[in-house]
Amino acid sequence: MLDAVSHFPTLPAGPGVGYKPQHFTAILDDPRPVEWLEIHAENYMGDGGRPLAQLRHLAEQFPISVHGVGLSIGGEGRLDPDHLSRLRYLCDWLQPASFSEHLAWSTHDSHFLNDLLPLPYTGETLTRVADHIDALQETIGRKMLLENPSSYLAFDESTYSETEFLTEVARRTGCGLLLDVNNVFVSATNLDLDPRAYIDAFPLAQVGEIHLGGHDEDHDDHGAPLLIDSHGREVADPVWALLDHTLARAGARPLLIEWDSDVPDWHVLAAEAQRAANALQQVPA
Amino acid sequence: MSPTQTVFHRALLDGSAPIPDGLSDGQGRAAGRRFDVYRNNVAVSLTEALEVGFPAIRSLIGPENFKKVAGLYLRQHPPSTPMIMQYGTEFPDFLERFAPLSHLRYLGDVARLEQAQREAYHAADRAPVEADRLERLSPDLMAQARLELAPALRVLRSPWPVHGIWRYACDGGAPKPSAVAEDVLITRPEFDPVVQLLPPGGAVFVTALLSAQSLSDAVDAALGEAQDFDLAGMLSLLLTGRAITAIFPPKEQAT
């Protein structure tokens, strides 16, 4: 077992970014205004080499959020015990300031599909998701944050709204929530819902972190707008407006910029983080 | 009823399968191409994972062909773990069996080389021995010693000029490969794997060390294949690759 390297028990209510290895030197040189970093858990499950060396180094200087993208909490089958063990090992040695995962599934029949797939919101799926979160929280010995997905379609069978479903999962399991404001905007546009009403119905007291990212625009078969959660560009203006609406109700929270494809130079990402810092500064203390 | 994840899963990987029932746009209209967003996410993300893992194969067959081959592979061999850094373990065998590329019979070994590079990149860290440790042993002790090699070390034997083809694929300015069998050594001196051509007998020598044979037995094995096997040159290759991580004298051999 490696020594625990992090000494930051919580994420600060300031701007963070999703860490990309190509920014390692720039971050060490001048991280401003970024106060914390988020990593995808699965990228740091190798046995050694540069990824782990960089992470150990960064964790000495920055609070780290571990964000899992592969546990398949919404999956019909049981959670993969090997993957649970890998998550526990990572959390044990790194002692991250936060751990989060998604309301989605990605593994079925031992095939990992590398996407965050949707599930219906019913009594049955609620029980399954809550059981999986209980199992995870027991394994890693800490509370997790569960993130709202971006949706491109709806299930006829759903009997809960997404906010009702997340409220109930958090109540049953004690987990916190990760509110992705871009996902809210994407889902609301795609399913013709009011994004502000979604925020107003969201259990904001449970929110331990907020995500922001860029999306692409497309259209469905009927010419209706279909937004794609691509994380490949700047955060769109209406999403920043929705963030202001959210922060005015929730107060300041750890605020992350995600940029995962067509990753830009550090100064572009730092400028997005500065915009997040500005939004946080407008929040009454 | 909602589609089960079995139905959803099958339709994701099979573009000709009907879109599952029970999915809509939120206003009662069938989901239609909205489902294709998920199909596309799966195919694009896994294709990108293969492009990252196998850049030389992509260069050898061309980016458009690579996308087509990746699309077939990912449907037959979806990842079996969320550690996407490992995705593609069956890709070398798949390429060898793939009839439309059967005229490029070396592709499997080039893919194995790239897979080995990726394994080396993520392998466990292990501090190397100091370079003069071996020299300070008496000739007798040295002959009977066993060497522990770094977890990142990989050896690949090929009937093809795999090193030359790989180098040519990565760098168009590299010399054209010559038609000889080549063996390759991969070491990781710090964080970046180094791919090198092994001299005659080198692969046999390193393989013998990996199976815990003594240095003299490994040399005998190498000489059996190449009478001009150069031990000093080979040890220097391993030492500069920081690939020797422990030297066990004979008395410890039994433990």
TrEMBL record, chain A:
Source species: Roseovarius halotolerans
Pfam short name (any one): MbnB_TglH_ChrH
Protein name according to UniProt: UPF0276 protein ROH8110_02415
Classification via PANTHER family: UPF0276 PROTEIN HI_1600 (PTHR42194)
Family indicated by similarity: Belongs to the UPF0276 family.
SUPFAM superfamilies, A to Z: Xylose isomerase-like
InterPro entries: MbnB/TglH/ChrH, Xyl_isomerase-like_sf
Highest taxon of source: Bacteria
From TrEMBL, chain B:
Record's protein name: Putative DNA-binding domain-containing protein
Pfam families assigned: DUF2063
Record-annotated Putative DNA-binding domain positions: 4-95
Top-rank taxon: Bacteria
